[in-house]
Amino acid sequence: MNRVVVKTQDGDVKINKHIYGHFAEHLGRCIYGGIWVGHDSDIPNTRGIRNDVIAAFKHIKIPNLRWPGGCFADEYHWKDGIGPANERPKMVNTHWGGVVEDNSFGTHEFLDLCELIGCEPYICGNVGSGTVQEFSQWVEYCNFDGTSPMTDLRKKNGRTDPWNVRYWGVGNENWGCGGNMTAEYYADNYRRYATYARNYADTKLYKIACGYELDWNRVLMEKAVRFMDGLSVHYYTISGDWNYKGSAVEFTEKEWMSTIIKASAIDEWLRKHIAIMDEFDPSGRVGLIIDEWGMWHEVEPGTNPGFLYQQNTIRDALVAGIQLNAFNNLAQRVHMANIAQTVNVLQSIILTEGAKMILTPTYHVFDMYKVHHDAVKLPLYVESEKFGETPLISASASINDENKIHISLTNADPAKPRQVTVEMRGLSGASYSSVKGQIITSDKMQDHNTFSQPDKIAIKEFLGAAVSHNNLTMELPPHSVVTLELS
Ligand code: AHR
Questions:
Q1: 435 near 444, Cβ under 8 Å?
Q2: DSSP letter string, 131-178
């Protein structure tokens, strides 16, 4: 039997909606084809951006979008991506398939996309091969409203008002593809770059330092904590290993379980990072930002290995549910997260083929979990049946300003349904008598949506939960993600 106890009186932390952020890199068919089709395309678009993708992003209320990378960010020179498109220089995308990057999607196009979606931009600057001046001028170009060379240039390129971009990443994976730096060298550079990234008018920047493993983060926190607002880490889940990551759609129960074990380990991993942050920032001011996370499989057979195109099954949905539950539960320190990557790359929420678009099971998890955006986290503990040391059940809960409680649960058992009770503690007179539910599941754990069967997996009504005296009982089907609403 599995038991979840929700402490309804102890909610004091908001689940920052930015935990539900996304990431789009100049990689494979993410930007080009997936988001940007250009002004002359037959695919319906708004100023070159696909209308179907805009609508899908808006529906799940994407709160922020990280761009332009990834490894690409530390080779990207933003001035190449402004001005008349036909005059922009072409470059080689050395990280991702060696293809030609024609810079037709640049700062204006990205910020237009964010305005169309209604989300906040999160720009990752170039530290690996860029300069402090280049980074500083990018901020000025985006945010300054006075008289300056960068403002004049922006106006000349057709944009009068500044965009007021708040979120800035100071490099990406600078311990690896972003320059192979040491922690000490990066920490000193972080301080230089952060110094010249200025606040203009009311836009106070939220500066995100590039973190890594525990030792690196300790050095960075020690040397630079007072200059940062966020510390980023990346967590990819791989069912195999880096030599053979495993197929996205053809896997055994054993591979399913190895995936669940690795996905669930994120909770303890995050707690270790948080412990270091607590030492140097006891007030909890600096956010832990998981600005790349998700499943990384082998590419789909026959596709360009440099494009990282993969399918997305119920297993990916489970990983999303488990990890979003972990982020919700650690919301006092986790202020933002960005799944990698929006369209056609890694654990995507959307796949496209020409004019066709499908939504993946992971998309539906983001749709179902949007009830937690900016709601107050309700602490809980879970007593779960286990596979080895790994719990089969995960959960998180929140209460919104209409006093509705939402509880999200996952059952990672690949084959069996599991009985779960949820006890609502400390309601002091308040009473919840109605429960509604939604579920994402399918007959087989390998099931996924395809262009010929786009709606095989979608959100369905869940009728398997009952409420009595503020306690819930339910049977969670195998490999399922559920969200309940109590009112
Ligand atoms: O998301 C793909 C790549 O994974 C990113 O470019 C890089 O930051 C990470 O290693």
A1: no
A2: -HHHHHHHHHHHH--SSSHHHHHHHHTT--S-----EEEE-S-TTTTT
Among 250, 292, 383, 485, the active-site one is 292
Residues 6+ away with beta carbon under 8 Å from 67 = 23, 24, 25, 110, 121, 122, 123, 124
Res 107 pLDDT > 90: yes
Residue identifier of the C-alpha nearest atom 5 of ligand 1: 70
- What the block records as the tokens of 100 is 């030609």
pLDDT at position 340: 98
CB 162 within 8 Å of CB 153: no
Q: Given 3-state DSSP classes, what are the helix, strand and coil percentages for the chain, each rounded to the nearest 5?
A: 30, 30, 45
Q: How much is the pLDDT for 429?
A: 72
Listed in sequence order, the residues at least 6 apart from 322 whose beta carbon sits closer than 8 Å to its beta carbon are: 260, 263, 264, 266, 394, 410, 412
Over residues 10-41, the pLDDT tens digits come to 888 999 999 999 999 999 999 999 999 999 99
* Closest by CA position to 116, among listed 70, 177, 57, 29: 57
- Which pLDDT value is given to residue 428? 74
Looking from the CA of residue 346, the nearest atom of ligand 1 is 1
Residue nearest to atom 9 of ligand 1 (CA): 70
Q: Is the CB of 125 under 6 A from ligand 1?
A: no
Does the beta carbon of 70 sit less than 6 angstroms from any atom of ligand 1?
Answer: yes
CB 350 within 8 A of CB 34: yes
Q: Whose CA is nearest to atom 3 of ligand 1?
A: 70
For residue 173, indicate whether it is catalytic. yes
Tell me whether the omega of the peptide bond preceding residue 70 falls within 30 degrees of 0, making it cis.
yes
Going through 14-139 in order, the beta strands assigned E by DSSP cover 21-23, 45-46, 49-50, 64-67, 91-93, 99-101, 120-125
**Probe ligand 1: pick from 26, 71, 296, max atoms within 8 Å of CB?**
71
Beta carbon of 174 within 6 Å of any ligand 1 atom: no
- Are 481 and 368 contacting, i.e. CB atoms less than 8 angstroms apart? yes
461 carries an active-site annotation: no
pTM greater than 0.70 (yes/no): yes
Can you say whether the dihedral through the CA atoms of 214, 215, 216, 218 is positive or negative?
positive
Contact assessment for residue 246 and residue 255, using Cβ atoms and an 8 Å cutoff:
yes
Q: Measuring from atom 4 of ligand 1, which residue has the nearest CA?
A: 70
From the CA of 172, give the closest atom in ligand 1.
8
Closest ligand 1 atom, residue 69 Cα: 6
In angstroms, what is the span from residue 40 Cα to ligand 1's centroid? Answer: 31
